[in-house]
Write a structure and sequence with these properties.
The chain is mainly alpha-helical. It contains 14 helices and no strands.
Length: 293
């Protein structure tokens, strides 16, 4: 006699997340998308602005398409407005200042976090005090100093100023990451006969590339967009940068607004492209540098 097999209960698939959590996630995405759109709108407006003439700038709505896009604005500012020279100057000054800042900040951070010496905390404090000094309050003292040593109207004065003022924030960014580096790797390198200099350049710096990328982007944005130092220390037209060169299109009686928009668009694109390319590295560097130990 066969016995009836017991009924097998089939588990009901249920969502692992409550409805409230899904609604909250959806609202978060809506807020993030709205924030992204608000961030992109100024770029769209600037692009449309750069393709208009003066009449369209004042007579059309901000986001209205121009009747005939003036792509020649870009050609005119590059060839006739000397923007090509200003662009090269901006790239040269920015790259040299960023490399110098990252290298010096890495030296300082390595010496403070990985070496034992009595004044390490005091030296770190001195660099952090530099973050409390308002940049613009130093314009007159720096101008007098550069004038005495013959560095006025010289791009070296801009590079030195950028490096000095960016060192504290760069050291602070690198500091947390250096504290988290495992000492066992350095000890093993020393045991194998590696010198301190070789260990720094061959082992430590490659391990800190993500946080270096973060610090480099922050420095690059500041150096690229800076106006006051260049406008104060540089008087020769062929030594100016993009941010100061925009003034060439502002005349006493007329202003070429389309050319100004084209110049601003050209100045934004390099930083935007670099930021998009290194965005993952930037997030990694911020996350890694935020935790000590």
């Amino acid at each position: 006699m066969r016995t009836a097999s017991p009924a097998v209960s089939v588990p009901v698939m249920r969502s692992s997340r409550p409805v409230g959590a899904r609604i909250g996630t959806g609202l978060l995405y809506v807020v993030l998308i709205a924030g992204a759109v608000l961030q992109i709108l100024p770029l769209v407006w600037l692009l449309l602005f750069s393709l208009k003439n003066n009449q369209e700038v004042f007579n059309l709505p901000p986001f209205a398409l121009p009747s005939h896009p003036k792509w020649e604005n870009y050609e005119n500012v590059w060839q006739q407005g000397n923007i090509g020279r200003y662009f090269i100057n901006s790239v040269l000054i920015t790259v040299i200042a960023v490399v110098l800042t990252i290298l010096l900040a890495s030296f300082v951070t390595f010496a403070i976090t990985r070496m034992r010496w009595k004044l390490s905390s005091f030296v770190l404090g001195l660099f952090m005090v530099g973050m409390m000094i308002p940049v613009h309050s130093t314009l007159i003292p720096l101008f007098i100093l550069f004038q005495k040593v013959g560095l006025t109207d010289n791009q070296l004065s801009i590079i030195l100023s950028y490096t000095a003022f960016n060192l504290p924030i760069t050291i602070m960014i690198l500091l947390g990451f250096y504290y988290a580096l495992p000492r066992e790797v350095e000890e093993a390198a020393i045991m194998d006969g590696c010198s301190v200099n070789r260990m720094f350049f061959r082992i430590v710096m490659p391990m800190t590339f993500s946080v270096i990328a973060t610090a480099a982007i922050i420095n690059m944005i500041y150096n690229w967009n800076e106006f006051i130092f260049v406008n104060t220390f540089i008087s020769s037209d062929n030594l100016k940068t993009l941010t100061v060169g925009v003034q060439n299109f502002v005349g006493q009686y007329t202003t070429d607004w389309g050319a100004i928009g084209a110049t601003l668009m050209i100045s934004i694109l390099p930083i935007l492209v670099i930021f998009l390319v290194l965005s993952n590295r930037i997030v990694e560097g911020i996350a890694a540098g935020s935790v000590k130990g």
